[in-house]
Structure formats: structure tokens, C-alpha cells
Amino acid sequence: MKTIPVRNPINKACAVCHTPFKVYPGKADDLYCSPVCSQIGRRAFNPSKELLQNLLWLAPTTSLAKVFGVSDKAVEKRAKLMNLEKPERGYWAKQYATGFEVDIEKLISLIDAEKVEIPQ
Length: 120
Ligand SMILES: [Zn+2]
Prior knowledge:
Blueprint: E1 10-13, E2 20-23, H1 35-41, H2 49-56, H3 61-68, H4 72-81, H5 91-97, H6 104-117
Antiparallel strand pairs: 1-2
Bound molecules: zinc ion (ZN).
């Protein structure tokens, strides 16, 4: 007999307005409480090679994709194009198993810091 895992919602704070909201484990990467915040929170997907390299080791591509508002395929493709080194398969599962949590605020501040430094 198969056991049905209990899926307790996780409490999170919206990355934009900081309103607490609940997500279910399968959607633990959700960052925003609403589509409006998701629209505001999205970052233009134009990281430098150095920044993206850095980000790849700070969070899984699924989380990076959400911060940039693109698909994880887009992030993977860009990383490949830039010839960046990515954590191997299973790396993030191991991190999560030891209590790792994506620090969205940190990701956003790194991305925004670069935007200020590099004028378009
Ligand atoms: Zn919000």
C-alpha cells in the first residue's frame, strides 16, 4: 500500500510586498502573493556572465527563472551559452535536505546591484 504524503503548506513572505502567504511543497519556489506582485517583481533577464555564474550557485535554476520571470529552460540555455559551470544533478536536493532555503532577497539585491553598476 502506498502512503499518501501529508502536504503541509509552507509559510512564505511575498518577495515584493512581504505579505505572508502559503504555498504547498510542490510549489515551494513561488515568490509572490499575487499576479500583480509577480509582475512588479520580475527582473529583466540580462545578467552578466559573472552575475549569472554567481546566481547558479546560490539557487536552483527554477528559482532564478522565477526571479527573472522566464522559464528554467531559458536560464539553462543562457548558462550553456555563456559556458557557465552549474551544480551537478542532485546538488540542490542535497542542499534542501540539509535545510537550505533560497534567499530570494539576496538574489534580487545582487541582480539590482548589477543594474545600478552597469548603465545601459
Ligand atoms: Zn505581494
